[in-house]
């Protein structure tokens, strides 16, 4: 049995947070949020970690990661840069903005040949999330088009420091994803949770509504389908220097084509992260509490 791979999207600089938050020590012994995801993934049976990073901070990032994890698991580092696009395609030289999460996944195509999970580096997903996702990936080894997503109740994903954006999921009777609609300015108010939908309308959102926090599971066939969609994106957005290519778009398009299904896996875990600098105190206290309760050892990793 092949162990699944964990792909961590760590190329973002965290503009709202202010700095390279992937390396911010928020755990009791200076652990980063990403460290907890790696620990939970190893505990859930993942066999390799692939980091998507920028060349501009690769040296400091890789050194920091290798020092913390030691020989705990196989580590691979892949750079996401603007010029990493399919041969024969071009883009506007004025573009500075990264291509987006869909492209970040695509640049890992040469280093992943197993079922794999995708997460953000700066989000805490919880032990149970990795357990259900890892189990799904193992069960679907060798299959084609067997995708998955861990869905969180929106009430377990809000920030007390400001409104957030979330992908609100539509699910059929088989618990498979039928679509993701981005909602913005989601916040808890006195009489419930509200957000702004894709039409610009302010709408109520049930606290049990499932949302995507960018924790996905894929079979390796995703790479070829993703590449074809990215080629179409490059042609359609040749002169658009701000257009971004996101994972939910990729998944939506593949589902609509009938070439895959995406099972929505429920988790009992609470998501948290440092979307805003003001979130940091909550995260520090929450991780300290989890360590005190014995959910995690402290420090997380034995470097020997």
Model description:
With about 300 residues, the protein is α/β, with parallel strands linked by helices. The chain has a single domain, classed as Spore Coat Polysaccharide Biosynthesis Protein SpsA, Chain A. Helices cover about 25% and strands about 25% of the residues. The chain has 7 helices and 13 strands. Strands 1, 2, 3, 4, 6, 7, 8, 9, 10, 11 and 12 form an 11-stranded mixed β-sheet that branches. A hairpin with a 5-residue loop joins β7 and β8. α1 crosses α4. It is globular, with a radius of gyration of 19 Å. About 0% of the residues have low confidence.
Draw up the topology in text.
Layout: E1 5-9, H1 33-43, E2 48-53, H2 58-69, E3 74-79, H3 101-106, E4 116-120, E5 123-124, H4 127-139, E6 146-153, E7 164-171, E8 177-189, E9 192-196, E10 202-205, E11 210-218, H5 222-236, H6 247-257, E12 261-266, E13 272-273, H7 280-292
Parallel strand pairs: 1-2, 1-4, 2-3, 6-12
Antiparallel strand pairs: 4-11, 5-13, 6-11, 7-8, 7-11, 8-9, 9-10
Unreliable stretches? 14-18
Helix content: 25-40%
Instruction: Write down the secondary-structure element order.
Output: EHEHEHEEHEEEEEEHHEEH
Count of individual beta strands: 13
User: Looking at the structure, what is the overall shape?
Assistant: globular
CATH topology: Spore Coat Polysaccharide Biosynthesis Protein SpsA, Chain A
Q: Could you report the average pLDDT, rounded to the nearest whole number? A: 91
Number of helices: 7
Largest sheet: 11 strands, mixed
Distance between the termini: 27 Å
CATH superfamily: Spore Coat Polysaccharide Biosynthesis Protein SpsA, Chain A
Level-2 CATH architecture: Alpha-Beta Complex
Strand content: 25-35%
The rounded Rg comes to 19 Å
How many domain regions?
1
